[in-house]
């Protein structure tokens, strides 16, 4: 039962993240820009905060395969649960994208992360750096006396990075968030960026955290 509850929590959390975040992009598209880029960034940040505290006590509130991998590499999340968490996240994201397709069949790409024309390399670099920063923040706060603020710090980081990197790379930082709308909409041409760069950025983030915190006792 604990495994099922954790699976369900990550499914629901990632479902909510993709529904709200990419949903904001879709609604912005079909309403002629009423939400705006700033509104989309805020939506992503706020839904991360909300769901981190809602499901955090059950599953840790990762909602992101890159974060789950980072926590596993750090030693603060069990290797045996890695596959379950990532599967739940991907399925939750796909369910959200499927629902958005049903509601908005005319949407061009369901909020898929697509690099701005001419900025493919820049997008790859931005996804690496933004994911790295996110992981450094999550590990730094969660392993400090301010650990109760981890959800707030993570959401603020996602929102901040979406504000400055979103217009170039889409500021995904999350393989599940990018995979689902790409698969459901059929826009998979740049998916390789979002399935490679965040993983690498997450692992480098763990290494940097350890360099800054040599007394960290996690294995």
How many runs of DSSP E, i.e. beta strands? 0
Which class of secondary structure composition applies to the elements?
mainly alpha
**Shape field:** globular
Count of discrete domains: 1
Predict the CATH topology.
Answer: Glycerol uptake facilitator protein
CATH arch. level architecture? Up-down Bundle
Which CATH C-level class is it? Answer: Mainly Alpha
Task: Report low-confidence residues grouped into runs of 5 or more.
Answer: none
Topology as a string of helices (H) and strands (E): HHHHHHHHH
What is the mean pLDDT? 95
Write up what this structure looks like.
- The longest helix has 29 residues, at 2-30.
- The model has no long low-confidence stretch (mean pLDDT 95).
- 73% of the residues lie in helices and 0% in strands.
- Helix 2 (36-59) packs antiparallel against helix 6 (150-169), helix 3 runs antiparallel to helix 4 and helix 5 (120-142) runs parallel beside helix 9 (197-212).
- The protein has a single domain (2-212), classed as Glycerol uptake facilitator protein, CATH 1.20.1080.10.
- The protein has helices spanning 2-30, 36-59, 65-74, 82-103, 120-142, 150-169, 175-185, 191-194, 197-212.
- The two termini are 27 Å apart.
- The chain contains nine helices and no strands.
- It is an all-alpha fold and 219 residues long.
